[in-house]
Design brief:
The structure holds two protein chains of two kinds. In chain A, strand 5 and strand 6 form a beta hairpin. In chain A, the strands form three sheets. In chain A, strands 2, 4, 5, 6, 9, 12 and 13 form a seven-stranded mixed β-sheet that branches. A four-stranded antiparallel β-sheet of chain A has the order 1-3-8-7, with no helix packed on it. A two-stranded antiparallel ribbon of chain A has the order 10-11. Helices cover 0% and strands 57% of the residues of chain A. The radius of gyration of chain A is 14 Å and the shape is globular. Chain A has no helices and 13 strands. By secondary structure, chain A is mostly beta strands. Chain A starts with a strand and ends with a strand. Chain B has no helices and eleven strands. In chain B, strands 2, 4, 5, 9, 10 and 11 form a six-stranded mixed β-sheet that branches. Chain B has a five-stranded antiparallel β-sheet with strand order 1-3-8-7-6, with no helix packed on it. In chain B, strand 7 and strand 8 form a beta hairpin. The radius of gyration of chain B is 13 Å and the shape is globular. In chain B, 35% of the residues are buried. The chains are: A mainly beta, B mainly beta. At the A-B interface, strand 5 and strand 11 of A face strand 5 and strand 10 of B.
Chain lengths: 116, 110
């Protein structure tokens, strides 16, 4: 069974450009999470979806960030325009519900974003 | 105060010793607690979960939870160089999402 798939694995772009990160969750999982990881701030939750519906986007840093989940097998995180401080590793994770609480979150390999 | 706090380390232990990793959390309503391991350049992977006060053992790993003290720990017995990684503590704040600590870097030297 394939795990969480993310693309691209590495992205280098210039300030002001649009960046789109993609994620395919594990089949059958009904939760999808987007995280950002930096040395200074650690692993931060940006937004999460349940059954393709955004539930909590309070971690999205500003309006330049947006996320969509058009169907159960695909999600995107978009940054427009990008800035150097957006440089980080972006992880997507998925999980399923068990006993009323989310089960183990399975992380994708991450996208390392560098904004010059 | 951060919601989940960990000492950043590095924690250095010799091979074969017990490594003790600690985590405190601020929300008394938290119900679920997790330890993730993250190797350098890789993604986090779950190694232990604990939901009730006391100890939970899985192989060389033991998770300990004390809700009264808002404290969760991870013990690694017979530490191996392959255990060298960053260990992330995560707490379920509501039923849907996790809050992660910034992690403790563990170094096990031969």
């Amino acid at each position: 069974d394939a795990g969480v798939i993310q693309s691209p694995r590495h992205e280098v772009t210039e300030m002001g450009q649009e960046v789109t990160l993609r994620c395919k969750p594990i089949s059958g999982h009904d939760y999808l999470f987007w995280y950002r990881q930096t040395m200074m701030r650690g692993l931060e939750l940006l937004i999460y979806f349940n059954n393709n519906v955004p539930i909590d986007d309070s971690g999205m840093p500003e309006d330049r960030f947006s996320a969509k989940m058009p169907n159960a097998s695909f999600s995107t995180l978009k940054i427009q325009p990008s800035e150097p401080r957006d440089s980080a590793v972006y992880f997507c994770a998925s999980s399923t519900t068990s006993g009323g609480a989310t089960d183990t979150q399975y992380f994708g390999p991450g996208t390392r974003l560098t904004v010059l | 105060q951060k919601e989940v706090e960990q000492n950043s380390g590095p924690l250095s232990v010799p091979e074969g010793a017990i490594a003790s990793l600690n985590c405190t959390y601020s929300d008394r309503g938290s119900q679920s607690f997790f330890w993730y391991r993250q190797y350098s350049g890789k993604s986090p992977e779950l190694i232990m979960s604990i939901y009730s006060n006391g100890d939970k053992e899985d192989g060389r790993f033991t998770a300990q939870l004390n809700k009264a003290s808002q404290y969760v720990s991870l013990l690694i017995r017979d530490s191996q160089p392959s255990d060298s990684a960053t260990y992330l503590c995560a707490v379920n704040i509501n039923t849907d999402k996790l809050i992660f600590g910034t992690g403790t870097r563990l170094q096990v030297f031969p």
